[in-house]
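To close the section, here is one more complete example, presented without commentary so you can practise reading it yourself. The ligand is uracil.
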Amino acid sequence: MSQPETRGELLQKLRISLAELAAEGIDFVTRPGQREPGAAEARVPAQAVPSTTEARAPRALFSDGFDPNAVTDRAEGLRMIRKELGDCTRCRLHEARRSIVFGEGNPEAPVVFVGEGPGVEEDRTGRPFVGRAGELLTKMIESVGWRREDVYICNIVKCRPPNNRDPHLDEVATCRPFLDWQLLAIRPHVIVTLGKPAISTLLGRNVAITKLRGIWQVWNGISVMPTYHPAYLLRNYTREVRQAVWDDLRTVREHVNEAATRP
Ligand code: URA
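Output:
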């Protein structure tokens, strides 16, 4: 039987949900039976509140009028998303960063890898996964027959958290629309999340990576494969952990190959 959740866990879930609703442009919620002051009827009927896994990208036009939900040219979509991000100062992570690490790779990639946030090398170069964990990620990608440039690689936050601390929930929520827009612009066959923060962010709930890794999830109609972060692999370079990651990537490759041959 699962353990009852603690108050702290419930509060964390609530914060994530509220931050996601805020990113969706929903700036209030009502209690059952309560109406927004002055409103003839509640503006957000219960069925209109998206569940976290079905949520579409935030409904907003960019400052130049571009509609990120209507991307037809993936490369152009990514360029417009990067342009909207600009020289971002939306959260405190901008204060100590050297570079914004937007993401890189093939805009037509069948697979997108999502990590946590830039480290020192990524901050120095402006490129995702180029440090030690990145070298291992590149080897992981190559181990199943792809090249790094065939896939797309990005993170849940685009600026390095100081001293490589975990990104805070509000920082993740602030950066979240840009991740959603990237993923929806590319619309890969598979999203591979690396580590607990990436899959927890995507699914909007706090998950145990050891329980969920290797088990298909779905986000906005896109298959998601949670696996371990390469930094975890570096710290736990055991046969068992390596085998688990390799199994996950092989499963992804089979799924992609199968999707590519579907008419
Ligand atoms: N770890 C991450 O999660 N992302 C990077 O880009 C580098 C290290």
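Once you have examined the tokens, check your reading against these statements. Residues 193 and 226 are 5 Å apart (CA to CA). Confidence is low (pLDDT under 50) at residues 19-55.
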